[in-house]
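Bug report (template v2)

What were you trying to do?
Predict the complex of my protein with histidyl-adenosine monophosphate.

What happened?
Run completed; filing so the output is reviewed.

Input:
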Amino acid sequence: MQALPGFRDFLPENCAARNYIFAKWREVARSYGFIEWDGPILEPTELYKKKSGVEIVDQLFNFADKGERDVAMRPELTPTLARVIAAHEREFKKPLKWFSIGRFFRHEKQQRGRLREHFQLNCDIVGENALAADIELLALCIDLLRAFGFTEKVAVVRISDREFWTDFLREKNVPSDRWDELLQIIDKSGRESPENTRAKLGELADPVLAILSEGGKSEKLERLVKGLRGRGLADFIDIDVRIVRGLAYYTGIVFEVFDRGGKLRAIAGGGRYDNLIQQLSDGAVSMPALGFAMGDVVLGELINETAKAREKMQQVIAAEQKIDIYIVIAKEERRADALAQIQELRDRGYRVDYALTPEKVAKQFQTAEQLGARLAILFGDEWPQLKMKDMASGEQQLISSKDLVSRIGSELPR
Ligand code: HAM
C-alpha cells in the first residue's frame, strides 16, 4: 500500500527539512511582529464557494459529513481568516498582523511543484489601508527568501495591481460581472498560446495583448518599489502586470514569487483583498486586508537546487539531529546507576541516548559517534568513578559519579 497520489510520507530526513522550513518561517514572521494563529482543517464548502473562485472550488476535497453538511478540507486559509476576523474583530487592536503554518488540500493534477497536500505559511495584515502595509508585507516576503539563503539572482517577486486592470476594464466599458472571467484569462495568458488568449479575449484582445507585451505603468507600483529600495530590497522586485492571481478576492496589489530561472511553479503569492471580510460577513464587518502564502513544496525544490541554500539547511539539520551525550554501559550491574544519571541529565535539557539492551562497548562508542555525541560517559569497572570521553579530541578522563552533572555543565554549557 502506498500513500495516495499527491500525498507525502515524511521520513525523518523529510521531516527534518520540513522543520527547518517551519522554523525559518516562524523566526522571520516573528521578527516582523506577526503573531501565530490557526483555524480548522475542515470548513463548510460554502465558505470557498462564496469567494475563492471557480478554480479552487473545482479542486476541493469535499464530502457530506455524518450530519449531512457539505464540508471541505481547507484549500487555503484566507476565507477562514476573513471568517474569524469578522467574528472577533473587536477583540484586537488594528492593524492586526497574523501568521499561520498549516496543511492545505487541493485535488490538483499531481505534477512537479503541485501536490494534493501541502503546507503553507500565511502572513496577513488586517485593518490597514496605507501603502506602508503593502511595503511591509513585501519586505517580509523578501526577508523570508533571504533567510533561506536566496539572493535576488535566485528568486524574484513579480508585483502587479489588480486596480490597473479593473481601471482598464472600466475604461473599456466592460460590465463588472465579466471582470473575474477576463482577469482569469490574463492570469493564464503566460501559460497559454497567444492564439488561445486572443480568442478568449475577443474584442479586448488587441489592447490587452499590447499592455502585456509592453508592460503597464502604475504610479502605485513605482511608489511601492521606492519604499522597498529604501530598505535595500528592491532588487528582488519586478513590476509585471501579467500577474493577476487565480483567486477571485484580490482587489489591489498582487504578487507572486518565482525562481529567476523560471523552471519552477510559484513559491508564494498574495495581495490585497479589501472586500473579502465584508462580503463573507454580509456587510457586518468591513476591513481592508492583505497577505500572502508561501508553500513548502516549491520552496523545498528551490532550496535543493540552490547550493548555498541547501548547504545552509544541511548544516542546521545536522546540528539539530546531534545528541549531546551518549552513556556507555560497560557493565550491566551499572545500568540502574546509569539510568538514574540519564534521567537527571535529560531533566536538565541535555539530549542523551544509550543502548536499550546489552551491547559490546566498542559498538556503543560507534553509536555515540554516529549520533554526533560530544561526550561519551562510560559506566563500568571504574565505578563509582566514570570515564568521560571527549568525542572530538578522543581525550579521556576519570571523574567521580557525584560530580558528573556539574562536570557536564562546564564541558557543555547550555
Ligand atoms: P495560492 O497562490 O493559491 O495563494 O497559494 C500560495 C502558495 O501555496 C503557492 O504559491 C504555492 O507555493 C503553494 N501551493 C498552492 N497550491 C499548491 C499545491 N497544490 N501544491 C503545492 N503547493 C501549492 C493562496 O492560497 C492565498 N490564500 C494566499 C493569501 C494569503 N492571500 C492573502 N493571504
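What did the reviewer find?
The radius of gyration is 27 Å. The chain has two domains: 12-39+77-316, 323-411.
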